[in-house]
Design brief:
The protein is α/β, with parallel strands linked by helices. The protein has 11 helices and 14 strands. Helix 2 packs parallel to helix 4 and helix 6 crosses helix 10.
């Protein structure tokens, strides 16, 4: 008996053919790459975002609006005969979630509830959700989906609460879902990447080096191999491919899945600095500051479950993450962004 035989299969599996997918956060960094990946395999894309789509034109319909507006979402679903939702839109910074938790609960939790209600009313039964490793809270080391750690900030709680909503909507309304717990998504495709003033480590190191500024390492006395924090970095194109596979999975299984989306490999801050030096012509100037409260020493995903369920394995390592990010930052497209 295979591992998948323990999962609940649909009595009459839906066609694994092309479908119309509504993507929230479609103008953002990750959402943009997902739109491209969906179009590349022949799906139709309804791109939803409060902001104009700037990085790509890989969509069939663009809806400028908020995913929490259930009337707008239901209209988009009906007019375009939407089969599935990929929900990437969110408010996503830990620090601001602590100072303004209400905004995070309103946007990430209540907004997603409105979107799920639109799916329920219009009979959309497939839902892929961008969750976060922040659901693991103060965990340190390798994170498994079965870990019992609880979030330690409102951003993490907002993702954890949404995962619970997905479980409840599956039981009550038959909405099948995949919640991907993102680790550190980085890198770029040939034509797009992160916009200016990005917040993730790879982007921050590279932007500081390109501006000839000094980068600050927060803490170098952690119980790791070199004293700096260790994190899991996964290429954005690998992340996008996982979402394509998730939609295929939901054609066959009546389940509510939660999966890690990382590389399964840890890299320290010094590793990233070294990779920038090795794979680009940049030279990183850095200094060391005090450790930030609440930063775990090491946070790395186990992707064994994701590999078993989806057959997914990241193809692009830290070398390609750094190379592709550098090429994007040097591109005319990036430098023309406002």
């Amino acid at each position: 008996m295979s591992w998948l035989d323990n999962l609940v299969k649909l009595d009459s599996p839906e066609s694994a053919g092309k479908k119309t997918v509504l993507v929230t956060g479609a103008s953002g960094y990750i959402g943009s790459h997902i739109c491209v990946a969906l179009k590349d395999v022949g799906h139709s894309v309804v791109a939803v975002d409060r902001n104009p789509v700037r990085l790509h034109n890989s969509y069939d319909v663009y809806v400028q609006g908020d995913y929490s507006d259930d009337v707008t979402m239901q209209t988009a679903m009906v007019q375009n005969k939407v089969d599935a939702v990929v929900h990437i839109g969110a408010t996503s910074l830990v620090g601001p979630s602590v100072s303004d938790p209400g905004a995070y609960y309103k946007n990430n939790v209540e907004g997603t509830r409105c979107l799920l209600e639109a799916c329920r009313i219009q009979g959309v039964k497939q839902f892929v959700f961008a969750s976060s490793a922040a659901t693991y809270g103060d965990a340190s080391g390798v994170c498994y989906e079965t870990n019992s750690n609880l979030p330690c900030n409102p951003y993490g709680w907002s993702k954890w609460m949404t995962e619970q909503m997905l479980r409840d909507y599956h039981v009550a309304h038959g909405i099948r879902s995949v919640a991907f717990r993102y680790f550190n998504v980085a890198g770029a495709s040939r034509s797009m990447g992160q916009i200016k003033d990005a917040t993730h480590l790879v982007a921050r190191i590279m932007e500081s080096a390109m501006s000839d500024n000094q980068f600050t390492i927060f803490g170098n006395k952690y119980p790791t191999i070199d004293g700096t924090c260790v994190r899991d970095y996964v290429h954005v194109e690998d992340v996008a491919q996982a979402h394509v596979l998730a939609l295929e999975l939901l054609d066959f299984y009546d389940e509510n899945f939660t999966m890690n989306l990382g590389s399964g490999i840890g890299n320290s801050v010094y590793d990233i600095i070294g990779a920038v030096r090795e794979y680009t012509p940049l030279r990183v100037k850095y200094t060391t500051g005090p450790a930030r409260e609440g930063d775990p020493a090491e946070l790395v995903s186990s992707i064994a479950n994701t590999h078993k369920i989806l057959g997914w394995q990241p193809k692009l390592g830290i070398d390609k993450i750094v190379e592709s990010a550098y090429n994007w930052y040097k591109s005319d497209t990036y430098n023309n962004l406002k």
